[in-house]
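Student: Please help interpret what follows.
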Amino acid sequence: MGIDDGFFPKDYKKEKGLTVLVGLLYENGKPIRFDLERVTVDGNDCTKAINRIAQKLDPDLILSDSVTCAGFNFISPEDINFPLIIVYNYKPNINSIMNALMKHMKDDRVDIIIKVISNLKEIISKKGKIYAYFSKVSEYDGINYINYNQEYSKIPEPIRGAGVLASAISRWLISY
């Protein structure tokens, strides 16, 4: 299952608005079902939302393209009830992230986000170099899962598909 957040206007920052978080379940390389939750921009409800989505869709594993979602809302890997892989297309600049976090957020999310980013593994996948964090899944199994789900780019297809859906749904919701 891929997880991704939707679009939100800048004035939603600092917990002033909601966006959607979409979970898209794939089976045999094809999307079969999705579910969504609304999450607070810069809030702290992303982990619970992922667990609710995953409980409904019952995936083998969850893929995300960042430890953050909906601005500086965040995923706490230890609190996700399923195996999780966080995949980055590039190595995040830890100093830039730390500066932004310290400027805007002064709670436990700083430690969680920095822990994940500090423990990214460089992976040479079938589509090129990526960086990944593995929780409740072995690196070996995680790499195989990533390679199996890379179709058009380095980002696994379940994440890309979830992102397309989340963006479309959130923009549609904002327009009404």
